[in-house]
């Protein structure tokens, strides 16, 4: 099965009734001398390039404790990893397109993981494109030598440009592209929505369990630059000559240090998330924080579907020792200093709002809100003032802030009827296949028609728009689908200075 791209012909194969093209390059390899440069178009090749095997992935090693260890790719890494994997219902058509950005705290993960190889969206009539991009220092370390900032996001924009120019040859409609991602992928979607270079490259956006979190000021980016160079005892120019493994060890150590020992004076705003290698507001590629851009109506003028799971911090909280309320306040203090708050003050507010929570439950509530729920709520409210927004909540709302952990919905979102669910990691297990089919169908409906539709439950058909005045979410819980007031929406008030 042959398709002609702008750079040459690729050969794919058939699978489960759709066509597959793996490891197709959208930009030139990241060789040592090009580690910190903007992505460039791939050189044209002659003959036919096989697209029957997954490419290498971005160099990485396990990072960020138990959550990052689970997300880290175990696949071979290399330099030719700026690639996309494409599955299409037909190369002769004009189907809607899904472009998916993987998560992993901007340091681990890949588009080549098993959960993203199901072909679920291709089987549902959508051209699916999963994107590999530069992670960690390669993608997000600020340098003072003229290298562009936000290289990992520039890679994603290059992939979107490749889709614009080539996806029609794979049976896709370049005017009906949905840009989506989960966790750091969701953070990336929100950031790219605020980047002028991405205007017009996608028609819908879908940040999933991630929104406007993890964006650095230039001052904080300079702090990380100094820490990285001091750790390696090199100059910026010498970074290009280091073995990947040396760069990765220093990157891992800085990430783990920030994740395990939050320090506002050392990390600045990155202390909130504990993820140091993040997009930077450089005034050029990313002129404004995504929330500021959304408040001005300067994010991408596209409909958005956004949401979280009910227990976003369930797994993250396992990295912390047993604690009492005072211990939770101490652990939290450095994380909330960028917001002008204190750990004791925030814990006191949450204890008043959630009196039945244990110390661990308060920690789960605060962490989940700080990193996931509140940013999603704020970004949804701001974007909804200018564009259509649909908000969802996945999983049961349980006592003591338990519920569906971060990433629990991915197996359902990427579920294909008849697939071997045994290939999925335990954290993405599918136990109710009928429920999985319905969840997947909601995602398909947004990609295909913009207004997402609920296939079963109390609300059958389109669900209403989300807004600050009508903060309604579609709650997907154990086979049931219902429209309800956002149970997490009011928690943004717990962080406001005026809160009593």
From TrEMBL:
InterPro entries: AB_hydrolase_fold, CarbesteraseB, Type-B_Carboxylest/Lipase. Gene3D superfamilies: alpha/beta hydrolase. Residues 3-481 form the Carboxylesterase type B domain. This is Carboxylesterase/lipase family protein. The lineage of its organism: Bacteria, Pseudomonadati, Pseudomonadota, Alphaproteobacteria, Hyphomicrobiales.
């Amino acid at each position: 099965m042959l398709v002609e791209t702008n750079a040459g012909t690729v050969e794919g194969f058939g699978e489960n009734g759709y066509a597959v093209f793996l490891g197709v390059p959208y930009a030139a390899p990241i060789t040592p001398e090009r580690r910190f440069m903007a992505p460039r178009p791939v050189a044209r090749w002659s003959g036919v390039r096989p697209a029957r095997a997954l490419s290498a992935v971005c160099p990485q090693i396990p990072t960020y404790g138990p959550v990052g260890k689970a997300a880290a790719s175990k696949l071979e890494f290399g330099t030719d990893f700026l690639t996309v994997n494409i599955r299409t219902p037909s190369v002769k058509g004009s189907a809607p397109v899904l472009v998916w950005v993987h998560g992993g705290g901007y340091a681990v993960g890949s588009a080549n993981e098993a959960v993203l190889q199901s072909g679920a969206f291709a089987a549902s009539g959508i051209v699916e494109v999963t994107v590999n991009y530069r992670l960690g220092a390669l993608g997000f370390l600020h340098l003072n030598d003229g290298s562009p900032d936000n290289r990992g996001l520039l890679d994603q924009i290059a992939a979107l440009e490749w889709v614009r120019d080539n996806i029609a040859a794979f049976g896709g409609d370049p005017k009906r592209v949905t840009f989506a991602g989960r966790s750091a992928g969701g953070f990336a979607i929100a950031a790219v929505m605020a980047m002028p270079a991405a205007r017009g490259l996608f028609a819908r956006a879908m940040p999933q369990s991630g929104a406007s979190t993890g964006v650095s000021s230039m001052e904080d980016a300079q702090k990380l630059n100094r820490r990285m160079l001091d750790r390696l005892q090199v100059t910026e120019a010498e970074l290009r000559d280091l073995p990947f493994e040396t760069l990765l060890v220093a990157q891992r150590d800085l990430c783990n240090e920030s994740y395990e020992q939050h320090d506002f004076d050392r990390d600045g705003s990155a202390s909130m998330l504990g993820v140091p290698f993040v997009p930077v507001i450089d005034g050029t590629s990313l002129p404004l924080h995504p929330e500021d851009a959304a408040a001005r109506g300067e994010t991408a003028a596209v409909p958005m579907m956004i949401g979280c799971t009910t227990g976003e911090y369930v797994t993250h909280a396992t990295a912390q020792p047993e604690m009492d309320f005072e211990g939770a306040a101490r652990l939290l203090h450095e994380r909330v200093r960028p917001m002008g708050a204190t750990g004791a003050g925030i814990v006191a507010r949450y204890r008043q709002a959630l009196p039945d929570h244990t110390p661990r439950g308060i920690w789960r509530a605060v962490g989940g809100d700080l990193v996931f729920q509140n940013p999603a709520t704020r970004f949804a409210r701001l974007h909804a003032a200018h564009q259509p927004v649909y908000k969802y909540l996945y999983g049961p709302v349980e006592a003591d802030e338990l519920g569906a952990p971060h990433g629990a919905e991915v197996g359902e979102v990427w579920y294909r009827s008849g697939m071997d669910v045994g290939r999925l990691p335990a954290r993405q297990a599918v136990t109710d296949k009928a429920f999985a089919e319905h969840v997947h169908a909601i995602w398909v409906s947004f990609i295909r028609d913009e207004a997402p539709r609920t296939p079963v439950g109390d609300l059958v058909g389109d669900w209403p728009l989300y807004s600050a005045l009508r903060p309604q979410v579609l709650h997907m819980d154990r086979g049931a689908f219902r429209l309800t007031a956002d149970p997490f929406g009011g928690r943004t008030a717990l962080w406001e200075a005026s809160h009593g």
